[in-house]
Amino acid sequence: MTGRLAGRRAVITGGAAGIGRAIAVAYLREGASIVIADINTQAAESTAAKLSSMGDVSAMGCDVTKSDQTRALAAEAIRRMGSVNVLVNNAGLSGRGLITEIPEDLIDALLAVNLKGVLLCAQAFAQAMYDEGDAVMINLSSQAGKRGWPELSVYGATKAGVLGMNRALAVELAPRIRVNAICPGYISDVGMAWRGWEARGNSEGGTAADIGGRFAAENIPLQRLQSADDIANTAVFLASEEASEITGDAINVGGGVVMD
Q1: Does one domain contain both 156 and 43?
Q2: Strands of the sheet with 177-184, listed across from one edge
Q3: What torsion, rounded to 10 degrees, do the Cα atoms 254, 14, 49, 2 define?
Q4: Is 29 in contact with 229 (CB distance < 8 Å)?
Q5: How many angstroms separate the CA atoms of 95 and 89, rounded?
Q6: Torsion of the alpha carbons at 12, 15, 19 and 24, rounded to the nearest 10
Q7: Where are the alpha helices (DSSP H) in 82-191?
């Protein structure tokens, strides 16, 4: 531990598992106090209990699509930690389907979690973070928010929406809150792509790792998949003083699959 995030008091939505959990681990390792928020309260509490030896961590249940719950999260996190100066909007939902076939309930769910949820969390925390100053908001988008892929028109639209919000809030909340986004690539052990490779492995034979590895070798310039820890490392950097002159940006962590 280097203490890069000493004095940081962070809320991580969707923090019970996957990328959110990796960010929680990395933040605790660097000296931050954190609240893990997740729609699965039991999973959030279990993760917090497992990480308790690393530092100051607690858990809360929160459905980010409900404004009363995001506001309650903000109020309780401030009560527990004294203030919040880092918000990681990580909670998200994956889903795919051809535009001619994707069901309306999945469209609604993707829009609600991936876009409305980020907006509601930003709304709930913005004033207190602005008053605190030297604050950081990190929004998880996707490579699909920058580039088109088949079956990802709706998912990609939600993640592109996050990028539009990210740019606007970086201007609106400056100079007291820096607002940046992370656009993960193909994650090696979680997420929509990995589940697709698992499904292919079940039907074609082989493991998800084998299929994902072949995909990376053929499609990603660095010829490797990314890990949840790679995303967490970027989230640490953006929350640290080392990123003090970065705002309104959207950082690709995808091995070069998208370059801009």
Answers
A1: yes
A2: 57-61, 33-38, 9-13, 86-89, 135-140, 177-184, 250-253
A3: 40
A4: no
A5: 18
A6: 70
A7: 104-110, 117-132, 153-172
Residue from 180, 176, 67 nearest 127 by CA: 176
Other beta carbons within 10 Å of 137 = 27
Write down how long the chain is: 260
pTM: 0.95
d(C-alpha 152, C-alpha 25), whole Å: 30
Separation CA 192–CA 195 (nearest Å): 5
Same domain, 79 and 129: yes
pLDDT in tens, the chain (260 residues): 689 999 999 999 999 999 999 999 999 999 999 999 999 999 999 999 999 999 999 999 999 999 999 999 999 999 999 999 999 999 999 999 999 999 999 999 999 999 999 999 999 999 999 999 999 999 999 999 999 989 999 999 999 999 999 999 999 999 999 999 999 999 988 777 777 878 888 888 888 888 888 888 999 999 999 999 999 999 999 999 999 999 999 999 999 999 98
Domain count, the chain: 2
pLDDT in tens, 38-87: 999 999 999 999 999 999 999 999 999 999 999 999 999 999 999 999 99
3-state secondary structure of 184: strand
By annotation, the residues acting in catalysis are 155
| Same domain, yes or no: 23 and 146 | yes
Instruction: Tell me, yes or no, whether 135 and 21 share the same domain.
Output: yes
Q: What SS3 state is found at 140?
A: strand
Rounded Cα–Cα distance for residues 159 and 96 (Å): 13
User: Cβ contacts of residue 202 below 8 Å, gap of 6+?
Assistant: none
